[in-house]
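User: Show me a protein chain along with its predicted structure.
Assistant: Here is one chain, sequence first, then structure tokens.
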Amino acid sequence: MWVNLPADRKLVPTRYQDLRAGMHAVHTEPGVLVQLISGETGEARGLALNHWPILGMVLTLDPRTEYRQVLDGDQRAFAYVLSGQPAIAGRTVRAGQIAWSDPVSRPGDPTTLTLATGDGDERTKVLLFAGRPIGESVYASGPFVMNTRDEIEQAYRDFHSGKFGSIPRHTRLPAGA
């Protein structure tokens, strides 16, 4: 099984990573806990090994707290609100909703995404991911993301036949999934 990367069309082998919540790198600021899955923020670096650079984190903010995340201007970001009602880039987003951003400038020109909590007593939890758009069609199904449905079906066949290597039992998909 191979994954096609758009930047230089280089093919790379797939791999599985079991990234459990307790293993995440942590960055803290007053009233803010950042559990980093992928990429870097502050002094923390996520454990995920990616072929395409992605920033991924779970943010927990105390009431009346603001967090600023610097992004490269050519990145697209999404924030999924797990709990609370933060203002994301100045707009209120409720639990279960997603806020999206589009690239705002050229590569290397930084931009800042701001998340702020209100005056209530509730902590806010947000899943934030950002990365440069790949510029290709995307087809997703279950844990797989490819370019076409045929590639997804091949990924499932490869996964079930063991071509992804050793995968812990608790993370395996049932046959026929």
